[in-house]
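Hi F.,

I've been meaning to write this up properly since the lab meeting, where we talked about keeping a consistent format for the predictions we share between groups. The idea is simple: the sequence comes first, exactly as it goes in, then the structure tokens exactly as they come out, then a line or two of notes. No screenshots and no reformatting. I'm using this chain as the first example so we have something concrete to point to.
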Amino acid sequence: MSDDRSTVEAPTPRPLAPPAVHPPRHQIYNLPNALTTARLVLSAALFVLISLEQWFACLVVFAVAAFTDWLDGYVARLQGLNSALGRTYDPLVDKVMICGAYIFLLPQGTKEGWLTPWMVTVVVGRELIITGLRGFMENRGAKFGADWLGKIKMGLQCAVLIALFIILAIYARYNYTAMMDGTPLPPNWLTESPIVYALLVIRDGLIWTMLTATAFSGLQYIWRALTLLSADSD
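Output, unedited:
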């Protein structure tokens, strides 16, 4: 007697999804990333101090934050801690600190004429464009790290902020002393002091040099990206 029942095929088992890949703990919880996080906290403190016009405290906090920027890179190289998180997190915090400082200084600079909205737009716009461009290029497998012009730009941006905090602290000290003495400062007191006048010249020179380096650095990154994209399309 034949069996007319159709053969029932066993269901094909679904392939298991690959396990999620998590970076090792030492790539996240390490000293360089902790220093970067500390710099982010110091940046928030710096913004508050700028709003309160505590210029000497701004100078100290910014100097400490800049030192942590150097230190986390040194420790990372010393310990061989080169992670994807660190490569993204560290420059992003730097941009928050620098761009935020210039934005918070804008009201004071606009009032006194040494910082204008278009200058801050050049700084912030360059950082936003290049950050997005770097992420796009690195997702395509291209190496798009900082070059020598970008490092010069960063150094000049920090030098400008240090010069601004020093001059603003001097002005606040002079103004406080004059107020305590009951004698208002003369309108041209800045130009009558050779030291202060020299600092003003240095400040203005640094600002214009920084803006030039910022613009050229951004254009150079765009040119590099276009060159790499053109090579890939060939």
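Notes:
The chain has seven helices and no strands.
Helices lie at 31-52, 55-79, 84-112, 117-139, 148-181, 189-192, 194-233.

If this format works for you, I'll send the rest the same way.

G.
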